[in-house]
Amino acid sequence: MGRTQRLRRRQASESPTVDAHKSNSLQALYVQLHAQGWQNSTQLSAHSYVQTGRGLCSKRRSFVAGNELIRLPVECLISIATLEADQAFKGLFNKDLFDKDARISFQALIACYLMHQKHLHDCSQNSDIGVYLDTLPRSYTTPYFCTIPELQCLPESVLERTVSQNRQIRDYYEILKTLVGSQYCEGCGQRYCQEIWTLSEYRVAYFAVNTRSVYLNARLLKLQSSKSHFQPLLSGNTNLALAPFLDLFNHSDAVQTTAEIQGQDYVVTLNGLPIPELKPYDQLYISYGALTNFKLLTEYGFWLKGNAHDYFEVSLLDIEHMIKLNKTLATQTYHRNIFKFIREHNLCDQMFVHLDDGCSHNLRVVLHLIFKQQAYFPNLLNQIAFGDVDQFDNVQPELAYLVAHKISEYQIFAGELDKLPQLTESGAVARSYLMECVRYLNDFEAAQCALVSDFHNEE
User: Fold this and answer.
1) What span, in angstroms and rounded, lies between the C-alpha atoms of 112 and 368?
2) How far apart are CA 142 and CA 164, in angstroms?
3) 219 Cβ partners below 8 Å, 6+ apart?
4) Cα 119 to chain centroid, rounded
5) Rounded to an integer, what distance in angstroms lies between the CA atom of residue 63 and that of residue 255?
6) Alpha helices in 245-335 (DSSP H)
7) Terminal-to-terminal C-alpha distance of the chain
8) Burial of 453 (0-12, 13-18, 19+ CB in 10 A)
9) What phi, psi does 286 have (nearest 5°)?
10) Residues 153, 424 contacting (CB under 8 angstroms)
């Protein structure tokens, strides 16, 4: 399962003209990739699916574990080698203005390159990747693109991630503006980061890279020059690229794939399948990694029902809110040293519940420290927190309170979204994610009740 309901809704609403444009864009991309040496040995075709919208299949071939899915020439990728070879793009960046204290990520630089190429494409149709740009979505469905009223109806964890993304994107954009903002496009005479390369364009370009890039080992790429123009500007490695056509593969938690450079090709191999064989026209998936629904939502703009890699994280703030709202717990006294100790020792990291594995160790420790013992001196708390693990098994009532609190909270968030006159695509995807979290926590609650019942029956 891939990009979820957003594509289903988009398909239903789009006109035949839009569908025809997408088909023509893909056909043009086929032609360009074949001219660059792609042979399509696995006979891949784009196809529309009810669950995911656009995806990839082979109309003639079957696939089993161990088969290659695609072998794309490295020349087709948009990588650090592409940017270093683009003299016009490099010419916009004066190395004398680079500041070691104001660096950007490679993802941020590729996003800038997409803006550069899109402007060329829009002005003159003279872009090396114009046909690829025509295949990219015009909008994305991460919570980042929710409206302010929608964001106000989302959980603290989602808000924090969105605020962090916004801060990072703005910081990168300001650095780019410092570097190129005094220049004018030779073609149209407009000023960079003013009339063109606007912040709103950069946001879309950034998430185009965020949602569609692939990992590669940049050291295996052949650069035209041994001296990198952009390396002094970059804060990290350059181990990612955009992969035209390959990025039409949707993600599934049920498959295992690997991707690597083999000689002159970037090769994706299907390593594991939930069924013995995929038939012609069956959708072909890749794995983005063992990602939770929270990660999929905030980084890619979709989630998976029954995601095998999912778990539900909670924070210390969640526990504090639960205490305030629970009549039984609110009457008790909790020493501030306990919360200080938990934060200083990072015990509030990795607090989560998992449908199969139950409550994480750190969550058990934190619940025990807050609710099951009276000590508040650091040396005693240290002995308890890092002592016998069996003592942490007595937190079932408090865990049940916490899960019930999060179920209620997420139902309220979804209800608040329902009160808005209309939801954006991002808002609708976020709401559906909230309800998937409620389903997950309800299942966890039922599983915990069954475990308790089985334990009492054994007694």
Assistant:
1) 49
2) 13
3) none
4) 26
5) 12
6) 293-300, 316-325, 327-330
7) 43
8) exposed
9) -120, 170
10) no
For residues 407 and 448, the answer to whether their CB atoms sit within 8 Å is no
Angle between helices 425-458 and 293-300 (to 10 degrees): 170
Structure tokens belonging to residue 199: 């912040």
DSSP 3-state of 312 = strand
- What crossing angle do the helices spanning 293-300 and 156-180 adopt, rounded to 10°? 30
Distance separating alpha carbons of residues 447 and 451, to the nearest angstrom: 6
- Of 376, 375, 372, 373, the C-alpha closest to 398 is 372
How many CB atoms lie under 10 A from the CB of residue 210? 21
Structure-token pair, residue 349: 């990291």
From the list 331, 340, 293, 334, the residue with the least C-alpha distance to 312 is 293
CA atoms of 150 and 172, how far apart (whole Å): 25
Q: Which two tokens stand for residue 108?
A: 């941020």
* CA–CA gap between residue 2 and residue 19 (Å, rounded): 19
Using alpha carbons only, give the angle 251, 434, 294 rounded to the nearest 5 degrees: 45
Tokens (6 digits) for 318: 């969640």
Element (H, E) at 265: strand 265-272
Joined tokens for residue 48: 């529309």
pLDDT (tens place) for every residue of the chain, 459 residues total:
344 444 444 444 444 444 555 778 999 999 999 999 999 999 999 999 988 889 999 999 999 999 999 999 999 999 999 999 999 999 999 999 999 999 999 999 999 999 999 999 998 878 999 999 999 999 999 999 999 999 999 999 999 999 999 999 999 999 999 999 999 998 899 999 999 999 999 999 999 999 999 999 999 988 766 689 999 999 999 999 999 999 999 999 999 999 999 999 999 999 999 999 999 999 999 999 999 999 999 999 999 999 999 999 999 999 999 999 998 899 988 999 999 999 999 999 999 999 999 999 999 999 999 998 887 888 888 888 887 777 677 889 999 999 999 999 999 999 999 999 999 999 999 999 999 999 999 999 999 887 765 545 555
β-pair partners for 258 = 269
* 251-to-19, 94, 222, 248, 329 alpha-carbon distances in Å: 22, 39, 29, 10, 42
- Residue 432: both structure tokens together: 């559906």
